[in-house]
Amino acid sequence: MPEEITTPSLNQETKPNSQKKLDVKKTLITVIVITIVVGLIGGAIFWYSWNMVNREDKGATIKQASSSAQKDGTTDWKTYTNTTAGYKISYPSTWTFVVETPKTRPEQEYTSDKFTGTEGEIRVDYGTGLGGGCGPTQEGQLSIKNSTLSVCVVNPDNAGGKTYNLLGAVSGEKEVTWRGFITVNKPVATNEEIVLKIVASIETTK
Among 85, 172, 82, which Cα is nearest to 126's? Predict the structure, then answer.
């Protein structure tokens, strides 16, 4: 009896190939989904870490600034800026500040900012015609925040406290100037430190 040979049908041949294509498609989709999920998780971790580092840096900066202010005792100080005269100053909250009535004298027109405390007084005049100078034995220097200014030292023997006449800035054709008068109340040894600390905070802004 002749041997029968069965020829596979077209459906029988293509079925395995279709299954393989389907499996490859599923694998690709799975890989893509896993890649997206891993990327999202990695991005979330990076974003969280970056924010935490920034918070720590900001916290450290604020803490450092606060510690510095606490260390030099200026945490409760106030700051005053005079754009006309071109200066800025910080002073204790226990001190008072007033702007005095403008004064007009022959060849002089000026206004005064006055800062007063139990330790002493700082008066800053600004306007026109504010000249002056020091005698050779009175001449000295005081450091402010961004400069060093010449001063006349009065009453160096502390007889009635101590006074510094601070020579300020000159600008323009009309010689618009500012000058300071600094008084340290007795006992000078105790009060001079805080008064000069206020003077050291002065910053010229012109």
Answer: 85
Residue 110 structure tokens:
């000026």
Angstrom distance (rounded) from CA 23 to CA 20: 5
CA distance 129 to 181: 16
Within 8 A by CB and 6+ apart from 98, the residues are 113, 114, 116
- What's the distance, CA 156 to chain centroid? 36
Tell me how crowded residue 167 is: count the other CB atoms within 10 A of its CB.
21
3-state secondary structure of 140: strand
Long-range contacts of 194-197 (CB under 8 A, 24+ apart): 194/92, 194/117, 194/119, 194/120, 195/119, 195/120, 195/122, 196/142, 197/72, 197/74
* Sequential pLDDT tens for the chain (206 residues): 555 545 455 444 445 666 666 667 777 788 788 888 888 887 778 887 776 655 555 454 444 445 555 667 788 999 999 998 889 999 999 999 999 999 998 888 899 999 999 999 999 999 887 766 666 666 778 888 988 887 887 765 555 678 888 766 544 444 547 888 899 998 888 899 999 999 999 998 87
d(CA 140, CA 134): 9
